[in-house]
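Example record

One chain of 108 residues, shown exactly as stored in the release files.
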Amino acid sequence: MRNKRGVTLVELLIVVLILGALAAIAIPRLTQSADTAKKNACSTNLDIINSQIELYAADNNSTYPTTLTVITNSLTYFPDGPPGCPVIDANYPDALVNDRVDKSAHNH
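Predicted structure tokens for this chain:
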């Protein structure tokens, strides 16, 4: 009787098929998760910007900034620089609506 040493071609193909099926399931989920994370980061950035607008108003006798650039260029409010949208890799619009960055205009 012979000792079996090694893997047959059929066994190897089965392993490759199983790995391919698992990859086909996992890769779209990972892509979707990355997109969701970017959207959540964008929403958080908008909340932070709007909080900083309120802080600016509190520091300036209830006077709100006329544009977003007024606070994003200030190291007091954004010491690491202005946040950008991670979804479209761009800055947020400079115009403020009702003293806020309009989330509906920047909807993903």
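Notes: Residues 39-106 form one domain.
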